Amino acid sequence: MSEPTSLAGEAQKLDAGDGLAAVRERFVLDDVTYLDGNSLGALPAHVPARVEDVVRRQWGELRIRSWEESGWWTAPERIGDRIAPLVGAAAGQVVVGDSTSVNVFKALVAAVRMAQEDGTGRNEILVDATTFPTDGYIAESAARMTGCALRPVAPAEVPGALGDRTAAVLLNHVDYRSGRLHDLPGLTAAVHAAGAYAVWDLCHSAGALPVGLDEHGVDLAVGCTYKYLNGGPGSPAYLYVRRDLQPRFDSPLPGWNSHAEPFGMRPDYAPASGAVRGRVGTPDILSLLALDAALDVWDEDGVSVAAVRAKSLALTDFFLRCVGAYVPDGRVASVTPAAHAERGSQVALRCDDAGEVMKRLIERGVVGDYRAPDVLRFGFTPLYVGFADVERAARVLARTLAG
User: Fold this and answer.
1) What confidence tens digit (pLDDT) does each residue in 289-313 have?
2) Which end of the chain, C or N, has fewer beta carbons within 10 A?
3) Which residues are catalytic?
4) Exposure pattern of 51-88 as b/e (b: 16+ CB <10 Å)?
């Protein structure tokens, strides 16, 4: 078993050589070790001033003029273009707005409609059996709406479950409970080989690791912005529609904001061209522009997704080492894959009394979260989590488990 002083010293050296260490100063942090950025990202320090300008000047002084003069009207596409490189997409394919759940519904129904246009008999939706519950609820509703059967399938079993009936497949890039990273390139290729459409949920991967939407030919994707993108609680989600599919994207929620002539007030709906047709109603400007400000961290500091991924793997490797060194044998077990190719940016530990353990950890200044019935989740946001944080978290965990 390693001595705490040895690992603490190693953590200091790793922090000293960390190329992203300076980015930490861009966030509002305190003495708490915050390892819950996979649920809610920390506040970038410059966001409050930007939001104050939106409220006091853009809304308070310019009022209605801000739709044009402050760029409110085009914000969903403009901010979408800022997110695009973080998920490996070219401009013009991402639109920001609505919640992840709403965007999953839009994407999945549109995928089924395209599949059914392609040919008859496409009347089945496959959904990730380990998915976040909302995705499953939405998939069930989408299946009823489109006359499809819904079949839950574990991601690894999707290739064998695909067939002539498959219309669309809804998958999570990273499992929210275990932190397992699924094979987006391979599964997307398998879905396409079966003549179906792939819809990916990127909530637990965007901003933490490379996604490669364009590179791997993903059809449609959705994701939230309040985790690794640090957009704030309830910040709007985004929808990706591959460029060549945009003319065929038939949203089940056609709203005036996605109309070809939004101010024409015509009784008949005519969709706008491009990703704009993924819009629905009036954008949530305050949250949208808070997100816009938060994304400055990536641009102004020249942060690359590749650098973030490298640090993420180093952080999670180090945490697992520290847990192995400090925590008594048999007290916890990692359910997060050890292989880098199968790991997101979190570590999930199975623990018999996980709920009570997490409560005590938070009381001692280490914030992660708990997922029923027995999982401790620790999220590692490389923009502001350091190696000393990791070592301290493992040390406090060991002390907490010891009573």
Assistant:
1) 999 999 999 997 789 999 999 999 9
2) C
3) 132, 201, 226-227, 377
4) beebeeebbeeeeeebbeebebbebbbebbbbbbebbb
